[in-house]
Structure formats: structure tokens, C-alpha cells
Amino acid sequence: MQRSGRRAGQARGGPRRAQTVPSERRTAWYGDAAAGERPCALRAAQRRASARVAGGGSSKMEMMADDYDTRDILRPLVFRLHENVPAIVREVLLERGWTEFDKKEQDDADWNLYWRNSPFRMTDHHSIKPWQRLNHYPEAVRITRKDYLARHLKRMKGAYGSALYEFSPVAFIMPNDYVKFIAEYSKERQSVGRRPSYWICKPVDLSRGRGILIFQDIKDLVYDCTVIVQKYISNPLLISGYKLDLRLYVCVTSFCPLTIYAYEEGLVRFATEKFDLGSLDNIYAHLTNTSINKYGASYEKYKEGIGCGCKWTFSKFRSYLRIFGADDTLLWQKINNIVILTLLAVTPLPVASNCFELFGFDILIDDKFKPWLLEVNYNPALCLDCSIDDTVKRKLLHDIVELLNYKQIDTLRRNQVAGTKTGRRRVSWSTAGESGTWEAPGLLTCRQVAKCTSASSVQPSVHPLLQATRRSIRKVATLTKKTARAHPRKTLTSQLRERMNMPKIPSQAKAEAKNKQLPGAGHSPHKSTQLNHWLPTPDFCNYELTTRPYFLSDKDQRPIPRVGDFVLIFPFNEAALQASRDGTDVKSIIKEINKLVRKQLPSKQQNTKKRVGYLTSV
Prior knowledge:
One of its GO terms (cellular component) is ciliary basal body. Residues 1-30, 507-531 are annotated as: Disordered. It is a single chain. By secondary structure, the protein is α+β, with helices and mostly antiparallel strands. 35% of the residues lie in helices and 17% in strands. The strands form 5 sheets. Strands 9, 10, 11, 12, 13, 15, 16, 21 and 22 form a 9-stranded antiparallel beta sheet that branches. A hairpin with a 2-residue loop joins strand 9 (238-239) and strand 10 (242-255).
């Protein structure tokens, strides 16, 4: 078989590329093919070519056509990078045998992975192809801006109680919450025998420690943009006197059904000067951001108990805790609960296929071994500041690619189902007790009903309900066009002014007005980027993609429990899986999480506190 393959390749002008593919790069070309094997389609094509040559009844043109099909199967996976993507992403993909997309020589859809730092346009999500993946989920910024995150957590705390959602300090969004903050600040100052609180002020849309202020006296609070003010955790866990926090990597492969993977390895980030509440303006003692501490005078010096630099791996941190007898099992369970509860706060997001989101959760541990959520990072830093970064982040990217679960057919980068339009998905849609099958783009929302036409020449019969709905949508579209011609387009300034001057509508009138709206009426892709009124609705995710998502196992059609160091943390049992399938039943999921929390043994928790007390005294 190899001999006939070489002859066919030589007929095309040279040896076959497949003969020189290293075994470690084979996965990027052949998918799950075993070492030394070729795909079945490739072997069948070679057998057909050999049979034609032996029979003498085939023309040279037929041989070349078969050989072209054979070579087409051997195309490698292709990645596409936007500007400013960290160099390590390109390095890892090239290490795996991928090739980089060339816009001048390749078709716009001839790629498998598109990675960028900024959100994708809605048109990118609409036109996604079955063989492609995007590294951002639409509207994932809902939890990565500090003010949005605070609002969502506050809403969840009010809906499901503060017992579960006490992992984030009370937040005040300034200047809107200035009066509330003054009331809380005055209340604590007037409390007899209570230790005065410390506060931290952060700009809502900045990262890497920029603009952060820690204060105790309100006269020191100064800001010139929208900020969030929270209680500063003044009793952090210290190692040899140095403050630390955890950078946990979390990959969400789907928000509907919710599917969450936590990375077992991660980064422990240290401040480079010893913690001291007497010097609140010393950023090297209170902030753990590497982007700040790498410029400190003590960064390259050897620090007792810490070493040089300012980072450990999770593995080293676990070993350190166990040396002192601290049981960290309960700690990681609590951290996983924080991740799940935080992501539940923003579900459901628009249903989107073939995308994923890598978040960076910043977790601080206090001296009672309680984890606190500091913030959630969009595009967690992948730059390499030290050898520990290289160890953790390079393996992280390799495991992300494995998690994307590419198949051999994805290397073809073309539709394999005849009569379907590229980038479309079949979804089930029901309302008022009636059901029908709709075709919709890769991204769906409850305010959008997309009309798709079949690429096949045979037109299937259309359900009467579907015909009536389409006529209604066309009528609304016609009226909308006439209205647009009659009135000039409003500017953004005029729209904002109208919204500010508009009288408030009672909640009942709002509900009636909302019920009168037709699905899809007045929808614009640009409206999805307005992030000022995000309240999830129960029917937001009542769509089901009939094409199997990439993150499901081939064996049992369930999320793969482990890929590399990525461990599935949600769904965590059968009840949670069922509660996340047909829309996200948050109430049922909260009940399951409460059951998990109750299973934690109080004796183990008390024993852990004793060990941590000894740990902090070292």
C-alpha cells in the first residue's frame, strides 16, 4: 500500500507529504488515527487508484483526480490570529503541526481556529462553519467588567440567598452608589468596639492593577471615572509574610447547556514586599499583579519562603499546604463552587455554536482558609514573564486545543452534507404549545428569528404555522422600511437624550409592551453590544442545536470528563446535567449545589482551620 501511494505521488511530481509527517504532529493531520495508520478514506482512494492502473482502463485524468482527493484529506488544520495575539499561541499551534491562515492565498472560510483578543462581530458568529472554532463567546464580557459582575452577583444573592453568594465583598458602583456607600461607611465608623474597615477602589474597565486605590479614610477616596468600591480583605493568607492570590483558568465550552472545565494547574501570584496595613500606598505589598511586581526592587531578589520572582504553580502550592498538614480538598471544592455560581449569574447567554471562552478567575484566600472572588478576567494574560509562565501556559494552550476535539473531517474544511447551506444549524422551536423546525444561524437569541433558504433545488413543504409567521415578519419588515423612509435616522446622541428624558414605565406596562413585540422585530446586531440591560429570561435558551456539539463524547454524547489537566466541574451529576439541557434551570442547579455544600463535614472544616492557623503563624 505504501508502494502504490509513492507511485501516485510521483505521478504528481514528487513524494507524498504524508511519508514525512512526524509522529508527534500526526494528530493535527489525521485526528484520531493510530501511529503508522492512514485514514480509511485515504487507503480506499489509493486502492481505487491502484486498481485502475492495473486494469489499464482508466485515463491519466482520472488518476490525477483520485490523487487530488487523496492529498486533500492530508491537509493540516489551519489557525487564524488577529493582531496582538500573544506569540505563544502561534508557537503552540505550529508545534502541533498546524499552518497559519494566509488571507491572500486562502479562502475566507479555509481555517479551523480563529483566535483574537477582542470580541468577535455578530456576523462572525452567524457565519460560523461546522469545522471552525472561535475563542470568544458572544457577550461573555457580562462578568468580566467589575460593575457588571457586581450587579449580577447582587441579583443572585437577592434571588437565592446570601449563604451561597457570600464569596464576594459588598460592592458599591460609584458615582451611582455614592450615597449608599457613605451610609455604610458612616455606620461602620460609628460602631463601638468594631475595627475600622479598609476599602479598595478599582476602575471598572481596567486590568493589570491599573488605577487601584486602597484607603481607610474617605477623604482619600478620589476617582475620575466609573469605579467600584469594595471592602478590602485585610486578613489574607500569608506565606512568609507575603500576600498571594490564585489565577485559576476556566474554559466554558458552552453556556447552553452550561459546560465548565477548570484547569488543575495554575498560577499562585505573590506580592514582592511583605504585607503591611500601615503602608496602604505600597502597591508591591498589597497587589499581586505580575505586571506591577516585575518592576519592583525585590522582584529578582531571593525572598525567604518564596524564592525569586513572584510566582508558584498550583502544584507547588498544594505541596506546601500538605507539608503543614492543611487539607486543601475542601478549599478546591469551594473554589469550584464559586466558579459555577458566578457563571450561573450570567446565564443564559445567546446560544452559539463552535465557540469557547477562557476566563481567568482571581481568587484570594483569607487566614481562615475561605476563598474570595476578586474578579474575572477576559483574555487572561498569556505572555511569558518567567519560566513558570512557560510551564503552565504552554501546557494550558495544548490542552485547550485537545478540548476543542477536532476530527479528521475538520481538516477538509467544507460541508459534508448535501443540500445544506454553509454555517446553518437546525434548531427546534416551539411556542404556545405548537412546535416546528426552524433553520437558524449559528447564534440565536429569543429576539431573533432568522429565515433561511435551502440550497437544494427541491423545496420541502412548509408548515402552515411557519408560513403565517413568515408572512407576519415580512409585513413587519415592510412597515419598518416605510417608517425608515418617512423619518431620518436618529443619531446616537439623540437616542441617548430620548432615553434620558423618557418617563419611567410601570413594570406591568413594560411586561404588556414586551408581550406585544414579535420575535425578531426591531432586532439589530448592534443592539447586542449594548450592555446596560442584561436580565436573563427563562425562555432565552429554549433552542436546541440538533448537530452534536464538539465537546461531547463520541461514546455517550455527554461532556468529556477530563481532557489533559482540564477537569469537568459542571455538570457535576445527573441532576445538574438534566437541569442544564433544555435551557438552564438555575433553581434546580442551586438546589444541587446546596446538597454538595451540606455534605462537607464540619469536623474536617474545623481541623483545617486549626492547621491553617498554624500555617499563618509560620
